[in-house]
Each structure stands twice: as structure tokens, then as C-alpha cells.
Design a protein that fits this description.
This protein is α+β, with helices and mostly antiparallel strands and 210 residues long. The chain is built from 6 helices and 5 strands; from the N terminus they run H-H-E-E-E-H-H-E-H-E-H. The longest helix is centred in the N-terminal third of the chain and has 15 residues, at 14-28.
């Protein structure tokens, strides 16, 4: 019997890529797509930029490690590990029109009022500096949405966070938290939030709205 070898993938058919862009454009301009106002996005941009150069902890999303645990970077900057909870929290607060100052964030961290995890495990609590979990009112999934990032935030490395260049972590932090890098898709369309052609249309629409 002849053995058929799987062909190596080269590129998607142009016609299908074009259809994905059409779908992306339709969703990008749909009135049903939740958006953060330009003014609030600008204020969050200023906040996150100020946070990034302050002495407050940087929030990093990376698989592995205990969410809410704090580790010390080789530069001396404190790093807090998280899942997607702080991004959801930031988007929901921005969508509601809330914008914070750096002193506000500092007080929230002191009160442990910023979520870094969807849930906690009893066995991990001893390792967690921050134990706040994502409240249902800040969870976009509870409303049927998936929060996606326009520019990829993946660190794509097995190097321990504490050994990565600080500049790389700062860039990650900004893209991770800024509402200007967020968009929502219906939860049952979650896979579209990973499709380049679809994301490119969202990016273009967000730039026009800025």
C-alpha cells in the first residue's frame, strides 16, 4: 500500500485569508463590540507607562509558578506572576470609565485589591504575597466574552522570569495590562482572537478610533 506523506504547510489559501479579514473587519466595526473610550484609553496609557518606570511591582503573565507570588528580578525590581486576571480587571474598569493614578494603584496593592489569579489553591497560599482573585464583576467570561491581545504578549522562552532582561519584562507588562492592547470577542468565537488576519483588522480599527 502506498504511504501518503503529509505535505508541509506553506500558507493558507488567499481566498480564505481574505474571508478571515472580512470577518475581522465586520467585527472590528460592529456596534456590538465593546470598546473603551479614547479618553479613558489615553489615561490608562499614561498610568501604565508611569507604573512601568516606578518602583511598584511589574505584573507578568507566564505559565508556571504560583499566581500572586512575588519574585525578585536580578535588577532588584519585584515581579508578580499572574494569569489573565489583571488584564480582565483593567479592561472592565476602563470600559466602565474608571482611570486611576499611580498612588491609587499603590494603595490597591497595599490593600491586596488587584486580582492576579482566577482562583487560589490552599497549598499555594503560603507562597502568595497577593491573594486577591478575579471577582465575577471583573470577569469578562462571565458575560460571554473572551479577552484577547492585539499585539502578542507571549514571552516565548523557558528562561526564568528573574533572568530575563528588565526591558523585555517592561514591554510585556505594558502590552499585557493596557486596555489599548485589548479587544473582546464572543466566548464561542474565542479561536478568532488568535487569527492574524482577524487581529490585523481589529488593530487597524483601534488605530482609527484612537
Amino acid at each position: 500500500m502506498e504511504i501518503r506523506h503529509l505535505p508541509r504547510y506553506v500558507s493558507a489559501p488567499t481566498a480564505i485569508s481574505d474571508k478571515l479579514r472580512e470577518i475581522g473587519a465586520a467585527w472590528a466595526h460592529a456596534t456590538e463590540r465593546p470598546r473603551v473610550s479614547s479618553d479613558v484609553k489615553r489615561r490608562w496609557e499614561e498610568l501604565i507607562d508611569a507604573w512601568a518606570i516606578s518602583n511598584l511591582p511589574l505584573i507578568i503573565r507566564k505559565s508556571g509558578g504560583v499566581r500572586g507570588a512575588a519574585v525578585m528580578h536580578c535588577s532588584g525590581r519585584e515581579i508578580v506572576l499572574a494569569d489573565n486576571s489583571p488584564a480582565q480587571w483593567a479592561f472592565i474598569r476602563a470600559y466602565a470609565g474608571h482611570a486611576y493614578s499611580l498612588p491609587d494603584i499603590q494603595q490597591m496593592l497595599i490593600r491586596d485589591a488587584i486580582p492576579f489569579a482566577y482562583a487560589t489553591k490552599t497549598a499555594e497560599k503560603a507562597q502568595m504575597k497577593f491573594r486577591c482573585t478575579l471577582h465575577s464583576t471583573d470577569n469578562v467570561n462571565k458575560c460571554g466574552w473572551k479577552l484577547c491581545h492585539i499585539d502578542d504578549i507571549g514571552l516565548s522562552t523557558r528562561t526564568p522570569v528573574v533572568e530575563l532582561p528588565l526591558a523585555k519584562l517592561v514591554d510585556h507588562f505594558k502590552l499585557f495590562i493596557k486596555p489599548s492592547n485589548h479587544f473582546l470577542v464572543p466566548l464561542n468565537w474565542a479561536g478568532l482572537g488568535e487569527v492574524k488576519e482577524f487581529i490585523d483588522e481589529i488593530r487597524d480599527a483601534e488605530r482609527c478610533d484612537a
